[in-house]
Amino acid sequence: MHPPPYFDQGADRVLFCVAIGDALVDASVGRATLHYRYHPGANADDPLATYVQHAAEIDAAVRRRMEAGARPPVMLRDADLKPPAGR
Question: pTM for this structure?
Answer without folding.
Answer: 0.91
